[in-house]
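Posted in: Protein Modeling Q&A

I'm a second-year student putting together a small comparison for a lab meeting, and my supervisor asked me to include a predicted structure for [acyl-carrier-protein] S-malonyltransferase. I've never done this before, so apologies if this is the wrong subforum. The sequence is pasted below exactly as I got it from our records. If anyone can share the structure token output, I'd also love a short note on what stands out.
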Amino acid sequence: MIFVFPGQGSQYVGMGKSLYNEFSVAKQVFDEVDSVLNRKLSNIIFNGPIEELTITENAQPAIMVVSIAILRVTEYIL
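Accepted answer (user: helix_wrangler)
Welcome! Here is the predicted structure, written out as tokens:
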């Protein structure tokens, strides 16, 4: 199995929110990143504003956390 994850520019407000709400394994990923960063990146991802989400220091880890959450949910389902 091969996974290809997106890069900067693919971010949008609300990405990954349905995974967060539906799968505890995804919620764990978001919560862990918030804890490691010592800030609520998940709030920016889920609620914006888009101008804040597109700043590189937010966009890069946001895309990473959503990608890892997708991977964890896929592993859980399979």
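A couple of things worth pointing out for your meeting: The chain has one domain: 20-77. Residues 20-77 form one domain.
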